Structure formats: structure tokens, C-alpha cells
Amino acid sequence: MKRHAPSDDGKHLLSKVGAPLRANVLNKGFVRLVDAMGGDAAVVDAARVCYDSRSKGEAQDRRLIAYLMTHAHLTPFEHAVFKFHVSTPIFVARQWFRHRMASYNEVSGRYTEIKDEFYIPTVWRAQDAIDKQGSIAAAKLDHKKLSAKLAAQVRSSMAAYREMLAAGVAREMARLVLPLNLYTQFYWTVNCRSLMNFISLRADEHAQWEMQQYALALAEFFRLRMPWTWKAFLSHAWKGRNPALSEAAAAGQADGQP
Fold first, then answer.
1. pTM of the shown model
2. How many Cα atoms within 13 Å fall on the side-chain side of residue 232?
3. Beta-carbon count within 10 A of 233 CB
4. How far is residue 94's CA from residue 69's CA, in Å, rounded to a whole number?
5. Is residue 148 part of a domain?
């Protein structure tokens, strides 16, 4: 059974915005690659230092990365690091922060006034009766009515927030009226090994659909920055189910490279 309904909210085309790459996610979110250290070569160097050697050319280096991935020798992948700037709804961020092998710094609702940025889905899902934590496509739901209802609730909450600030209530208390679909922003620095673990769990169809969209955006940055490792990951480590990654894995196997 298909668990998640398709939605145009999930388009995350990569675009050049200034220097960093940026992927737009959901209606107002994004993932932006701020910085990166290392890459496929860093993985190779970290692995070959055990034998006091360096790169032996592309063919052998690609085979080495595939071997490391196949046999779960994963510490060399920790020497490649990504720094992302993320904007996501709070309910997605709370799932994201469960991945603890990384560094986080989040915007503070105590130090700054909350922006009027909320996630309003255009497609709603029903509760899955079999998978208690999951959801399924629901054509019978009145999607426009539900979106309008949420938008009205957001406007009411934001109005109450601003009224409280105007009355002199502290920002740290006025924010209590705001809902979980509010966007937050944070910096996330993560090594390649932990990023692969994140994608393995959060791009899979069992993850919440909104979280999947962010995982797919991260996967595209991973592919662009570390193409050899990305291919090895899809071929030897990815065990989940997601049409986008399954198609990429099949295309990678067809080219015959390790």
C-alpha cells in the first residue's frame, strides 16, 4: 500500500543562490550547503594511511570505497564533513535532532522575534490503521478545507503572539501560543558516515513524508559532493525503499562502475 500521497510541496530543485548550493523544500523551507571539508579523496586518504600510502588512481580508489562500504569499514567516511543551513517546520526539526552524532545551533525564540513562516500542506494524509505511526493517501479528505482551517489557525496564533509582545510579554513566553508547523532554522555540521545513516533512515518510505523531502535534498548534495561514495552507498549500504533513490541505484549499477 502506498503510504504517502504525492504533493508539489516536495519539489526541491537545486539552484545556485550566491556561492552555496540551495535546495527549496516544502512550501517555505530549504537546505543550503554552507561549507564542506574533504570528499571522496579524504575517505581514500584516511583508509590508505593504515598502510602508509595514498591514492592509487581513480579505478583503485573507487574500488576501495566500494570495499569499505560493502564491509562496513566506515570510520574513513568520518573524515568528510558537511555544514548545512536548514529551514524546516519544528515537527521535522524535532525528529532531525534525534540524530545526535552531529553539531547543531538553532535560532532562538528568546533572542529574536518569530517570523511569520509556517508549513501549510496542500495534500493531507489519513492515519494508517496498520502502521500506528504512519499515514496513507486519503483522496476522500477535503484537502482545501483542511489547508484553509490550518491557515486560519496559524493567523490566529500569530495575531495572539504579536498582541502579547505589544502588551509587554517576554518573547520566551509569547511564543507558547505558536504551533508545531512554525519554521525554525539551524546550522547542522555532520560527517559523511552520520549523513549516510540519516539518509538511510529518513529517506525511507517509513519516515514521515515531510522528513523524506529533506533527506532527499541532502542526498542530492551528497551525490554532488562525493559521487564515488554516493554510488557505493546506493549499491552496498542503502536498504530502504524510495522511488527516487531506487532509480538512482539502478542507473548507477547500469554504468558498471564500482
1. 0.89
2. 25
3. 26
4. 29
5. yes
Phi-psi region of 23 (alpha: psi -120 to 50; beta: other; left: phi over 0): beta
Q: How far apart are CA 92 and CA 79, in angstroms?
A: 27
Active-site residue, from 3, 22, 125, 202: 202
87 is a domain residue: yes
**pLDDT tens-digit map of 234-245:** 999 999 999 989
Neighbour-count burial for 151-188, b at 16+ CB within 10 Å, e otherwise? eeebeebbeebeebbeeeeebeebbebbbebbbbbbbb
Annotated catalytic, 202? yes
Dig out the grid coordinates for 107 from the structure.
535560532
Domain boundaries, position 149: 8-39+80-225
Residue 137 counted as domain residue: yes
User: Based on the structure, what is the number of domains in the chain?
Assistant: 1
